[in-house]
Structure formats: structure tokens, C-alpha cells
């Protein structure tokens, strides 16, 4: 029997039971994986680099220019099912010879062009790095969103951003030592699915009722709870989930307004002159994150169907169908700048120019502003106490002071929380 196994058209696969061999149909041949290619100038032989301005290749030595060759597929980009066949057919590696930068400070691993002289980690700014040949054993990206914003655009955007808030130190945009922006393709997974959510909950209806007490009729407000149920159907399209945990998820969310309508099929040429990050969050783990995000969307859709917003004992059964995924690279610029001896990080969306990052807060300004906000209420309150012996006047002044103090406290808390978020991002 062993001479006839595996049968024609089948290959062995992993078995969950020791001693039992399992075979699956041989996946259809998807053709040879893309060969590793170099980007050499046909005019002078020097290295070329991708141009964020129009997507072409420009020689860094003789200025030879090659027009872009990029069909735009956008949201019509092919999607892939969660099947063994899909994973078996997936190409691997970057499709071009690249080096790998391994940071000894934060542990991040970044892919960069072979001729790159970079010795600084784009994630933490450390120069404690080791370069080696990039691995080619991970899934190859299927689609890419090309850079549209240039480094010069980033510098202008960053300086404007560093001077836009009164909470920041005066002249921060001029004082801060702003380093260069590193163009970095970040890995993302996109997920699609059809959801069917059946829900049931007790929904509260407020009503006023009259009751008789101590010889007179009175009114009171009560909540009457009634069971309600329903069904919500949702189609989730292109839910973006980061494929790396090396950058702040909060910052990525702030700049994450990517327009996927300009997605292009992945070509190694897009990486010319740029660094790239391979995914460290694999497909299965990213899908779990995506499922939780989808579940929350389904929950909100169900709650929107209730007749009132008062809900208790909520229960939801959720079914997923037609799940699919894509592995894409999205453009982000990363920069570090120093102020008062401390290093801060900023991210810029390489397509839209949206910026987010850490900014130092001038807490002296913040505390003075909070004091100015609270002082009218405090002063009027003290004046009301001093004029209390005067008939009625002290009560009026004190009441106005108390009202202003309450308003001031609310505004002061909002100012403090905004400053704290800005300082801690």
C-alpha cells in the first residue's frame, strides 16, 4: 500500500493524530514565485529610487527617469479566503534582494534597500542596530498604497503641527531639532465579512404615573422594562488591522484615514528607496482582532434598533460569512525630534499628510490658564460671602459665583485632560 501513497494529485499535510497520514489535493499551480530583481539605472548603472511625487523610478546619480507602471485596482483588489489552498499558493518574501535592520534597543526588524546606509531604527531612533540579509520566508504583500507625500511635505507639515497649539512651548517649531523623515511601508491586513446578528434585550420605557399618598394625588416617573428582539445584517468592507505592534496603535489610528481606492498590485519597485516592515502580527492573530472590531460594530447596530436607549440583559448571537482578507502595505513617514534633551516621535500618513505624535506640553501655561478659568467663580464666591449680611445681594453674587465656578471646573478639567493626552501620546 505504501507504494501507492500518496496517490496521484495529492500531497501530505499535517496530521492531528500521531501515526495517521493525511493527504490533501495538490493546490493548483499558481506559477513560479517572482524572482528577486534589482533596480539599476539603464543609463548609468546606479541605484534607482521610487518617487513619491508620481510613482516613477528616478536615478539618484544621472537623473534618468522611468515613468510609473502601476495599474490602479483600488477596492476591487482581489481578496482571499481563509483556506489551506490560499495559504499554500501565497508567494513569499519581498520579491527583491533587501537587507534587514534589527534594533537591539526596541527589538524592531525593518526591511531596507540593499544599498542603504541607514544605521538608525525608525521606531525608536536608536543606532544600536545590526544589519543582515532580509528573510524571504514570510507572506508577500499582495497590494500596496504608493507614497504621495514627499519628505519636503512632511517637514512643512511637522513644523506647522509643532506650533499650532497654545499649550506647547513658545517657538517649539523653531527650537525642536527635527530629524529627517523615514518613509516606511507598514503591514496591514484588511478583512471583509457578512455579519448576521440576532439580539434580545430588556428595553426600558419611561412613563409618568399618578399615585395616592397621605390624602393627595402625586406623580412619579417609573421605568417599565419590556423584552425586545431583532436582527441586524452588516457587510464589513476593508476593515484595516495593523500587522505590526511596533508603533503606537493610538497614533496609527489617528493617521489611519487611508483611501484604499488607489491600491495597486504589489511590485518590488515600490520599495525602491523606502524601508518596509514585515508583519509581526500573523494573519490568524490579526483576524481575531478584526473579529472583535466587527463584533463591536454589530453590537452597536443591534442597539440602534432598540426603541429606547435604556437597555439591560442584552444578548447577541453573531454569525460570520464570506470572510476574506488581503495583505497590503500602507505608506507612513516616521520621524524623531528632540526638545529639552528628550526625544519625541511623529507619524505622517504618506498618502494624505495627516500627522500625529508626541508633543511636549508647557505645563506653566496650562496651570496659568486653569487658574484664569477658575478665578472669576472663586472671586465672586468670596465676594458673596463678604456681602452676605446685605439683604439679598450677597445671595445673588454668591449664586452667580457658584455657577461660574462649576462651569470653570468643567472647562479646567477638559483643558487638563487635553494637555495630558498630548503629553502622553
Element string (H = helix, E = strand):
EEEEEEHEEEEHHEEEHEEHEEEHH
Average residue-wise pLDDT: 78
The main sheet comes to:
10 strands, mixed
Radius of gyration of CA atoms, rounded to a whole number: 30 Å
The number of helical elements comes to 7
- Secondary structure class reads alpha+beta
Strand content: 25-35%
What would the principal axes of the Cα set say about the shape?
A: flat
Give the beta-strand count: 18
First-residue to last-residue Cα separation:
64 Å
Share of helical residues = 10-25%
Pick out the low-confidence regions: 29-38
Structure description:
Mean pLDDT is 78; it is low at 29-38. This protein starts with 9 loop residues before the first strand and ends with a helix. It is 24% helix and 33% strand. The chain is flat. Strands 6, 10, 11, 12, 13, 14, 15, 16, 17 and 18 form a ten-stranded mixed β-sheet that branches. The chain has helices at 84-89, 151-161, 172-175, 249-254, 283-303, 363-386, 393-424; strands spanning 10-13, 22-25, 48-50, 57-59, 65-66, 80-81, 98-103, 109-113, 129-133, 143-144, 177-178, 182-213, 216-242, 264-265, 275-276, 311-339, 342-349, 355-357. Among the domains are: 24-148 and 187-191 and 237-289 and 324-329, no CATH class; 363-424.
Give the secondary structure arrangement, pairings included.
Layout: E1 10-13, E2 22-25, E3 48-50, E4 57-59, E5 65-66, E6 80-81, H1 84-89, E7 98-103, E8 109-113, E9 129-133, E10 143-144, H2 151-161, H3 172-175, E11 177-178, E12 182-213, E13 216-242, H4 249-254, E14 264-265, E15 275-276, H5 283-303, E16 311-339, E17 342-349, E18 355-357, H6 363-386, H7 393-424
